[in-house]
Amino acid sequence: MSQSEARFTIRSLIATAIGTIIMTVLVLEASGRIDHSDNKDHVPVGEFEAVHVTPDEEFRMSPKSSELHAVCEQGYLAIAADTDPDFRGILVDYKNRGVRCARNPGTGSNPPAGEEQEPADNE
């Protein structure tokens, strides 16, 4: 057998790899191992980054606006889709704590559920 004689062509190896991946997905789907949840209650709306803004520094961001907008939902900041008003999610930090709409819930926004507004000091 000479070295110039190849047993398998690169094209056949690539086709075999792609076919194997497709067959694996089909078998997993048919056996019910791939879960397609219809419950969208706990699905993340998106991933967000905070851009630190200081008065003396400029920051760069895209001139295009996203298809999302912020709303205050029970005292917490929620992100809602422009295209579907029912699609919204509360913004949480890395410890799954809600981000308030205002520093003091008594400044015009509704207090978060379970929290009471602090009385204003009139001294």
What this model shows, in words?
This protein has 123 residues and is an alpha+beta fold. It folds into two domains: 35 residues; 60 residues, no CATH class. The protein has one helix and three strands, in the order αβββ. It has a three-stranded antiparallel sheet with strand order 1-2-3, with no helix packed on it.
Output mean pLDDT: 77
Instruction: Give the helices and strands as they follow along the chain.
Output: HEEE
Low-confidence stretches: 107-123
Supply the number of helical segments.
1
Class by helix and strand content? alpha+beta
Biggest pleated sheet: 3 strands, antiparallel
Q: β content, as a range?
A: 5-15%
Oligomer: single chain
Descriptive labels:
123 residues; alpha+beta; 2 domains; three-stranded antiparallel beta sheet; 3 strands
Describe the SSE topology:
Blueprint: H1 10-30, E1 68-73, E2 76-81, E3 88-90
Antiparallel strand pairs: 1-2, 2-3
Please sum up the structure shown.
The chain is α+β, with helices and mostly antiparallel strands. The chain folds into 2 domains: 1-35; 56-115, no CATH class. The protein is built from 1 helix and 3 strands; from the N terminus they run αβββ.
